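A.,

Following up on our hallway conversation. Structure tokens first:
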């Protein structure tokens, strides 16, 4: 059992009014399973021997326990959901209130144990889709006419490229895709991902 150590950063998250009791309960269950706690991406994050295993989300309509390799976990209770349509690895257990978490403590701990076992077994999610990206025509045209941007885009990590391409191709109209590409130019030149500041 991991000792609950707090930092000002952890305390700040635990004292936020939204989903406060739910967050504290999930934290307690996770720490009981022996994971290490830190704050990443402004969220409570839990790792096993340095590898991210779980994270707590406090969303507008639900509180969630996310598993970084959730796609690899056996979901015998059929309770894991994709947080977004493009999510490859992350899966979440979502909760509407404290009672739901309390009623499902054993199930939650069982899924945390599966996440830990995935780390112990060295399981990796196959991100083939990152390598096989289809560039929208608008991006190809813009990159062809802008060697500086083309070079910067080419040096982005596969995950950052994927993020941009999904963002660009989610637009239904060509002019919107072009506008999104142009708006992203400075970030791309700085080597930053679509969601990075």
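Then the amino acids I'd put at each of the 197 positions:
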């Amino acid at each position: 059992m991991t000792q609950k150590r707090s930092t000002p950063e952890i305390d700040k998250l635990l004292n936020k009014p939204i989903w406060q009791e739910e967050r504290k309960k999930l934290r307690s269950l996770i720490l009981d399973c022996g994971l290490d706690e830190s704050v990443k991406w402004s969220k409570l994050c839990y790792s096993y021997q340095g590898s991210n295993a779980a994270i707590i989300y406090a969303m507008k309509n639900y509180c969630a326990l996310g598993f970084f390799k959730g796609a690899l976990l056996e979901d015998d209770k059929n309770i894991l959901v994709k947080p977004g349509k493009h999510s490859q690895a992350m899966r979440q257990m979502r909760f509407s209130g404290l009672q739901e978490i309390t009623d499902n403590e054993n199930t939650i701990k069982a899924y945390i144990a599966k996440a830990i076992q995935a780390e112990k077994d060295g399981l990796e999610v196959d991100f083939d889709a990152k390598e096989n990206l289809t560039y929208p025509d608008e991006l190809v045209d813009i990159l062809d006419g802008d060697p500086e941007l083309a070079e910067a885009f080419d040096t982005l990590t596969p995950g950052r490229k994927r993020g941009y391409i999904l963002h660009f191709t989610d637009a239904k109209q060509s002019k919107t895709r072009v506008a999104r590409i142009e708006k992203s130019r400075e970030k791309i030149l700085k080597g930053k991902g679509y969601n990075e500041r």
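The chain has two domains: 8-126, 129-189. Curious whether your intuition agrees with the design.

B.
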